[in-house]
Every structure is written in C-alpha cells, then in structure tokens.
Amino acid sequence: MRIGIFTECYKPVINGVVNSIIGFKTGLEQLGHEVYIFCPTYKGHKDDPEDKNIVHCASWPLPGKSGYHYIFGLSDKVRKIASSMDIVHVQHPFVIGKRAVDISKQFDKPILFTNHTQYDQYAHYIPLPRKFAVVQIINYLNKFTKDIDIIVAPAKGIKDKLQSFGIKTPIEIVPNGIDVDRFGKSIPASEIKKLHEKYHIDTDDTVLVYTGRIAEEKNIGFLLLVLKKIIADKIKVKLLLVGGGLEKEAFDKKILDMGLKDHATITDYVDYSMIPSYLSLGDIYVTASKTEVHPLTLLEAMARGLASVIVKAPGTGDVIENDVDGLVSRDDVEDFAKNIVKLIDDKKLCDRLAATAIKKAQDYSYLSMSKIMEKLYTNLIAQIHAK
User: Fold this and answer.
1) Are residues 356 and 373 located together in one domain of the fold?
2) pTM confidence score
C-alpha cells in the first residue's frame, strides 16, 4: 500500500504531531507499506537519508518560531507523486488539508483526517472575541470534514467532542503510539548526575517533571500555583518544566515574581533523544493541560516508569485511570497539590501506580497502533472500491 501523509510540519520541527507521524511511518513501513510524507520545505535542512519518501512542498515560514509554514499550491511534480498514492491521510485541517482534499477529489483517492488538536482551546491565538472565534473554528471543522471519508480520533474524548460540534463524518479511534523501547531503556548514572548538577537538583529533592510546550494552553500557571502551595508546607520539591516554547520568557518572569526561583526551572528546547534522560530526573510526572487529545508526553512518562498527577480532562483523562496508573485531580489547585503530596508521602502507592503505568504503556507501541491504522486503511479502500 502507498500511503500519503500530508502535514503542515515535519522534521526538523519536533512536536506531538510530528512524533505521531514518525511513529506511524515507522510502524507502517515495518508492516511492508510505502509511506510518503508531504510536508513544507525547510531552508537549510537536509533530510535523514534513512527517512525515505519525504516530498517537500514549496512553502513560506509563518511569523514566529512555531515551525509551521504556509504551503503554496502543489507543483505538478508533487501532484504526480500524490496521484500514485492508494490513500491520502491529512494531519491538519488548514492549508495542507485543503491541498490534500484537492488531491483526493482530482485523483479519486480515499481520504482520512487525524484530529490531533482541540482547536477550540486555541481560540486565544485568534485576534477575535473568544466566543466568536470558537464558533468560527467549529463551523470550519464542520465544513472541512464534509470532504473527508473518515476522521481518526486518537482518543474517545476527542471523538465525543467532535460529535458535540455536530460533525457527521464517521469517526474511528486510533491512539497514538510511542517507541516503548526508547523510553524503557536504562540511562547511564553519569548522564543523570550531569543533569542533576545542571539543574541544581539535590538527592533529597522530590522532582516533579513536565514535558511539552511552554504555553498558556498547557496550563503552566496552574502548576506554578500548585508548587507554591506545596512548598508553603515546607516540602522539599522542585518542578522541572522540560521543553521550552514561545512563552518561556513570560513564565520565567512569572517564576521570579512568585518567588519560585529556587523551586522551578524551565529548560530550553531539549533534543527529543534526551527526553528519556530528563524523565529519569522525575519522581512524579505532572500535567494540568486540558487541551490534549492523546498526549504522547504522558505515555512516554508512563513508559519511563513515572506515576502521574493530571487534571481530569479529555485527552489526559483518556490515558490515566485514577488510582490505577496515576491520580486524577479536579481542576483545583488544592486538590492537585493534595494528590502530589499523597504520592510523596506514600511511596508504596507511587511505586504501584508507576508499575501499572509501565505495563499499560506497552500496549501503545507504535507498531501495535500502526496495525490498527493499517486495518482502517484496508477497510476504507475496500469500501470505496465496492461503491
């Protein structure tokens, strides 16, 4: 099977969507399929020779440091390659989404769309009143998905949300996969020691670790309030926020203003290959984000052997089961802090949750998830041909 994946971003950009694409590309190729990535051009970037079938589309970088590009109309060369695909799978509903729909219609190809993002939760980036912006986003998604054969939802929570928007296109759940072996491997003690020294972590500190983008929609301010409450009780805790982001400077200032300089650190961008080492610094994984769909960062922490404390919300709530592989909190600073302290005080509980988390993460290997996606592709192609 020749599979065309259309995306607004790819390497050298690394984020949750790109990691999801990489996982499925790797798994589907191991299953014997040819996977083509249709993505923007990146000035000065050379593709890894082992990463085959990367088709760059003429584009222009959008303002800022997001790594996203505006993709121009597809060239004849790109369209010719796209015409040879058995199936089109688009990862974003915007410019590349429209390009993929055009390919699907012109060459009569079945098309899927993975909804990776709770787009309504990003309305604050649109220079319009929030309620109006949310309505426009919902209307846009309804219009776009009318041209899609199947929507892929990485978790039940996002399927429910899309259906609440009035979207009628069939929705299938296919979770994101992770490289279980990468996150389960042992880390040299010398490497951990260097990171402890770099971030001034003492051996008796309890380390709360978060991985991901530093941005408003990730609810970082909530985690800082939680930290302030915990240290007020004289508990020796440090919060390590790993990932960098467009709002890093603003949150660095917030840390200073809140008197948390000795207790919270935001790293710069960390190479993805180093994330297992950074997770190894943690005793407990924390995220208060309410905008996730099926967060790979959380699955990676589970594979690394960390118990988690999360806010109950779609996405994270689809992964963590309360008192089984983590603790699920109300959207309340006091309740979240209480659950962290509970794990600090009860090591047996923390270890039990961590052990279950490791076992659960094994079910989300990228190969297992790719087999589910393969079946979805095969069934869709059969349905289209039967018409």
Assistant:
1) no
2) 0.91
The number of domains in the chain is 2
- Residue 172 Cα to chain centre, angstroms: 18
What is the side-by-side strand order in the sheet with 150-153? Answer: 54-57, 34-40, 2-6, 87-90, 111-114, 150-153, 171-173
CA–CA distance, 254 with 262 (Å, rounded to integer): 13
Q: 247 with 288, same domain?
A: yes
Kindly give, in sequence order, each residue whose CB lies less than 8 Å from that of residue 239, ignoring residues fewer than 6 positions away. 207, 208, 209, 210, 223, 224, 227, 260, 263, 264, 265, 286
Task: Give the max Cα distance, the chain.
Answer: 68
For position 36, which CATH number holds? 3.40.50.2000
Residues 168 and 207 in one domain: no
Domain that holds residue 8: 2-177+365-386
Out of 21-30, 64-73, 84-93, 94-103, least confident range: 64-73
Pair 205, 90 in one domain: no
How is residue 149 written in tokens? 């054969």
Report the pLDDT value the prediction gives residue 65, as an integer from 0 to 100. Answer: 65
> Do 222 and 272 share a domain, yes or no?
yes
Cβ count near 117 (within 10 Å): 19
State the average pLDDT over residues 266-276. 94
Has residue 331 got a pLDDT over 90? Answer: yes
- The upper half-sphere exposure of residue 6, i.e. CA atoms within 13 Å in the direction of its Cβ, equals 28
The encoded tokens of residue 95 equal 């410019």
Give the pair of three-digit tokens for residue 177. Answer: 């996969």
Q: How far apart are CA 244 and CA 280, in angstroms?
A: 18
Q: Say if residue 208 is in the same domain as residue 263.
A: yes
Residues 250 and 326 in one domain: yes
Together in a domain, 145 and 118: yes
- Average pLDDT of the chain, as a whole number: 95
